[in-house]
């Protein structure tokens, strides 16, 4: 569990980095000064981001092997269920992408020729999107059945 220091420190650092940019956004600084400040602050932001990730990684690495083994306990059936859920979501999204890639340009073409074709053509695009939603629902059902 994170304590108050670990929660507030990144927020304070981001505010301290962003505070000097207020004059830049108000237009009180020249373009060259603004460009240098933006580059400097972006570099500071990513440095703090990397520092936060490094801090979290060292804290997680300090956990003992027994704690990790207890947290990762699960059966082979549970792991295969999660893999099946991932495959159902991924493959249904891939199929929906292929369907929409074929139906959407045809729908736009039909609509550009005759405005009355809009409703008919959007039905086919929505059917392609429905495939992804059904795959996501199946994966959610699989995950809740395995937990």
TrEMBL record:
One of its GO terms (biological process) is proton motive force-driven ATP synthesis. It comes from the Bacteria. GO terms for cellular component: proton-transporting ATP synthase complex; proton-transporting two-sector ATPase complex, proton-transporting domain. The keyword Transmembrane applies. Pfam families: ATP-synt_C. InterPro entries: ATP_synth_F0_csu (IPR000454), ATPase_proteolipid_c-like_dom (IPR002379), F/V-ATP_Csub_sf (IPR035921). The keyword Membrane applies. Residues 83-142 form the V-ATPase proteolipid subunit C-like domain. It is a multi-pass membrane protein. The chain crosses the membrane at residues 7-26, 38-62, 82-111, 123-145. It is found in: Membrane. Keywords: Membrane, Transmembrane, Transmembrane helix. Coiled coil: none annotated. One of its GO terms (molecular function) is proton transmembrane transporter activity. Belongs to the ATPase C chain family. This is ATP synthase F(0) sector subunit c.
